[in-house]
Structure formats: C-alpha cells, structure tokens
Amino acid sequence: MIFAVASGKGGTGKTTVITSLAAIWEGPVTLVDLDVEEPNLHLFLKPKVMRETAAMLEVPVHDSDKCNLCGECAMFCQYKALAIMGKTMLFYPEMCPGCGGCLKICPEGALSPGGREIGRIAEGQTEFGRFFMGRLRVGEAMSPPLMQQVKQRVVAQGSHAEMPGGIEGCVPDDVLIDAPPGVSCPAMHAVMDADAIVLVTEPTPFGLYDFRLAVEAFSIMHKPMGAVVNRDGIGDQGVEEYCRESGIPIWARIPNSLAVAQAYSRGEIVARKLPELNGIFQELKKRMRAAVTVSREVERA
Ligand code: SF4
Ligand code: SF4
Predict the structure, then answer these.
(1) Which ligand is nearest to the CA of 67?
(2) Which domains does the chain have, with CATH numbers?
C-alpha cells in the first residue's frame, strides 16, 4: 500500500509522523522524500546512500543559424519560456518544464533537445527499508518534474525486498511518501499515487485554516483520508469540530509534550525515543491500512 503523509502547512509534525511510522512498521517500508524543496527525512532516518544522480530536464537548444525567427515556437509555448525580441530569440529555461512541443513544431529544425539539471536524486537504504529522496536545485521552481523522476526510480527499483532471516523470496514493500506542505501543484503531485492520505495538523485556528484547505484540495482525488492531530491539548476544538462535520476521521492524536519536541529537535525518531507513544503509531498504521482495505472493497463492490 502507498501512503502519503501531507499537511496544509509546514511545521505541523509530518516528519515526526512518517519517521515514527517507519520505526513501528511491521516489515520493510520504502521511504520516499518528495518534499524536494526542503527534504529532511534523511536527517532522522540516516540512510546509507548508495547512489546519487542528477535529475535532468529536457529543454530546447536553439540554433540561431537555422532559425528564421518565424515565432511559431513562442506562440506555441504555453509557459512563455520562449519569446522573439526583434531579431533575437529569448529562452527562459527556468520557465520550461520540458514538454518538448517546440522541438516538434519548429519548421526549420532549429531547436534540438538539451539537458538542464534541476536537482539530485539520492537512493539508499535505511534500517527500515529502501530510501529515495529528491532535492531541488537552489532557485529552481520545477518541483513536479523532479518528483516524477524520483517516483520513476522507486518503480524502477521494484517494490520488493528480501524477506527477513535471509529467506530467498520477495514481499511487497509498503511505501510512505513525505509530501511537501501546502496544497499547491507539488503537494497534489506527491499524493496523487497514494492509496490513502494522512493529513497532519495542529489544533489551532492557523492549523485549522490550512487543514481545511488541504482537505478541500485533496478531496477531489476521492482517496481515503484521515487526520493526525499533533500537539493535542493546545489550542481549541476547531479541528475536532471540523473533522466531525466533514466526516474526516481522526486516526491519531499525538500529545503536546516537551519530550516529543526535544526528541525531534535532536533528530531522534519520536516513536523510538518515547516507546510509550508506540501504541499511538501502531493504531494509526492500523487505521491507515483499514481505510485502504475498505476503499478497495467498496471499489470492487
Ligand atoms: S519555430 Fe524554429 S524557426 Fe521559428 S522562431 Fe522558433 S526556433 Fe526559430
Ligand atoms: S519544451 Fe515546451 S515548455 Fe519548454 S520552451 Fe518548448 S514549448 Fe515551451
């Protein structure tokens, strides 16, 4: 099963949830950091990185000798990455997502494919299972193409792991995705392949505002979705009331505690450092799985 851990805003406790889930998961779990603008899972999971590669985007290279400045490519480009200024062709690579359309329509063959590095992809192993991370180049705006390439790596590596005890054979990995905070295009892209979405929030008016936006944005995908209320005990009852009214189940409540904050700030996995909280994450995992099972049964019926 594939689970995306998301949040309407940053700093709600997404990392605490995903790393703790990894620590209590019953079998191998593939961990994928798609929060490519600010990946941080590696700081907690300490993976052994086996491979790091550049994520490239195919962008056009312009040959001014062949170009007749007809402007067809500029008119075609919906991203305004190409423009004709007098007798000069202008190209803004940071605005080009590499759709390849201009290469196909240029009547003179003046555009050819080139490459631009948009970030790096790390692949490795943690004690809990395989690990993948995308890291966007500083100043780069194109998260989704990098996220797509990370996903392709996960699929290319196969979702299998050796069974414990050295037994030859394969068991399907579960996948936990760390989605970027917010409800913009990258967040939607991160959760779109998940079987269920775990939405982490805080019980405060700010938390509620962003949580509500996230629920509304992700609802259009019709996936099972549940809330984790982090720092339970602070704030007010707004999140609880909203969940009740909108039918979003609360899958877990993590108490507001200095020990949790201290563990997080030291880069420790909360469920491991504070075993008394293990039951919360075990129950969360059970509810995540049950939600996917029920949704699959409903689909089959
Ligand atoms: S379509 Fe080709 S020939 Fe026309 S302006 Fe663009 S690059 Fe030049
Ligand atoms: S590849 Fe697509 S997005 Fe990039 S410049 Fe060409 S038409 Fe525009």
Answers:
(1) 1
(2) 2-55+120-300 (3.40.50.300), 59-117 (3.30.70.20)
